[in-house]
Write a structure and sequence with these properties.
heterodimer, A: alpha/beta, six-stranded mixed β-sheet, 6 helices, 6 strands, B: 391 residues, alpha/beta, Rossmann fold, 2 domains, seven-stranded mixed β-sheet
Chain lengths: 188, 391
Amino acid sequence: MIDIRLHGRGGQGVMTSSYLIAEAALLEDKFVHAFPTFGPERSGAPIAAFARISDEKFYVKTEVYEPDIVVVQDPSLLSQIDVTKGLQEGGIILINTDDPNKDTVRNIKEKRPDAKIYTVNASLIAKEEIGLSVTNTAILGALCKITENAIIELKMLEKAIQTRFKGKGAIAEKNIRAINRSYTEVKK
Amino acid sequence: MSRIAVTGDDAIAQAAKIVNPDVVAAYPITPQTIIVERFSDFVADGEVDTEFVCVESEHSAMSACIGASTAGGRVFTSSASAGIMLMFEILQIASSSRTPIVMAVANRAISGPINIHGEQTDQLLFRDSGWISIFAETNQEAYDSTIMAFKIGEHSDVLLPVAVGIDGFILSHAIEGIEPTDREFVFEFLGGERKAALRLDPDNPVSVGLLHLQDYYMEARAQVRDAQQRAKQVIIDTYKEWKELKGREYHPVEGYMIEDADYAFVTMGSGAGNARTAVDELRAKGEKVGLIKIRVYRPWFGKEFSQLTKNLKGVISVERAHSFGSPGGILGQDVKSTLFDSKQTPCIAEYCYGLGGRDCLVKEWSEMYDRSKKSFMEGKNLPYFWWGVRV
C-alpha cells in the first residue's frame, strides 16, 4: 500500500488532486481511498489531502500520518509547516518551486537527507498551459514520472482528467498538456 | 461491471438516482451534504422523474416526505447532525404513520460546541423512534444499503422508515471504488413502483396521523414495535437476495475472525475498517481477537449477536457516540443487555472514541485491545472510558 499526502492551500484544488490520483488508480483496478483533511476548507489556509493506493483490498480509514510520498503544491508552505512530518525513511517529496536551489527547498534536503526530493515548476506550467497558476493537476504528471508509473500511469491520469473535466470545453486538453509537461520537466 | 470512483455522498446520490424516487424533499441546512445537491442536478438534468421539493427547513423536509409517502410515493431525503435535531419531532411521525421513507444520514457531531465532523450520535439519538437504523463501513455498503433500504422499508410486513448512516467526512467526503448497478436491475429488485396498500386516495378515503389517546395510543405504538421485529426476517431475506443477485454478502451483525477468538471488538460504521485492520495486525502477533460489526442497529439482532459472542472471554465495545450520565455507551448498553439476556458472562470494556471527528489510528485500536485484555485476564471489567481525552 502506498500512502500519499498532498499539501496545498484552501482553494488550490488539493482535494481534487487526491481524487484524481484515486480515479486514475481505479482505472487500473487498484483499491483506493482518497480524501481531504476532514474539515471545511478555508480559502488560503494550509490544508492537506490524502490518497491510499493498493493492489490489494484494504480497510484502514484513518488520515495519513506516515506517508510514503509527500506532494507540496504551494511552495510558500515550506517555511510554514513541516511537510516532512512522518515521512517514511527513504520516502519521496515532490515540490512545486521555481527554483530548486531556494533556501526553503535546501532546508528540506538538509533535514531529510534520506528522502528522494524532486522539484518541478508546476506553477509556471499551469500558467502557460492552463492559463491559471492552479497546480493541482499540473504537478501530478511529475508524480507519475518519479514513481515510474507504478502508482498511477500517465495514460490513466489523462483518462481520469478527461472524465472529470468532461463537457468543460478545452479544460481537459489543457490539463493533459500540463501533466505531460510536468512529466518531462521534473528534476531530482 | 467495472468500479467507479465516488465519494460516500456521491455513492448514495447515485443509488437514489437509479431508484428514481417519486419525491425527494430536503433542505440545505449546515451541515448538509452534497447528496441532495447532486440529486437536484439529476432532477435539473432530467435524469430522474423525481419531484424535488426544496422546503424551508428540515422539519418541513421530513413533513413533506411523510405527505408524499402517505400518498403512496417512493420517497428519499438526506440530513445530518443539526438537521436531524430539527426534524426530530417529525421522525417519530414518520414511523408512527408507517411511511417507508429512506433517509441517508452523513453521521456528524451535534452542537455544541459547534462541530460538523464524523460522529454517530446524531443517528443514535433517534434509535427509539421506530426507524430502521443501518450503518455503512464503506461507500459500496452505503450504495447497496440505500437501494436495499427501499425494499426493506416498503415490505408490507415492515412499512417503516429506514436511515442509512455514513460517517461524516470519513466516508461522505472520501473517494472509494464502487461497483454500480443500473436502473433496470433496481426497478425489478424493488418490484417495480411502490405499491402502497393503504394510501391517501380520494376514491378510498383513509385518515392518517390522527389523535390516539388512552384508548388506542399504546396499540399504535405496539404496531411499530411489532413491525420492527418483523423487519428482521425481511432484512435477512433482502441481504440473501442481494447476495444471489450481486454476489456481495451482508449480514445484520457480522463476525470477522470470530470463530476461535477469545476477545472481540464490537463497533459500527467506518471504524470497523480500522478495527479489522487492527485485528489483522494483532492476529499476526498470535492474539486471538476478532471483530463483531453491527450493520443493522435497529432492529437489534440480539440472537445473532449472542451467537457470535458465546465463546468470548472478553468483549470490547467501541463507539463513536456518547450519552452523558449513562451507565456506558449507547451501543454498549445494547451489548451489555444482550449478554445479560443470553446469560453470557464475558468481561466487558467500553470505549467512546473519535467524537467530533477525532481520528483514531489502527495502533490506538491495538492499544485499546491491550488495555482491555490486561484487565480481562484478571477477570475484571473495565469502566466506560473516553479514549484519547486530554486531562
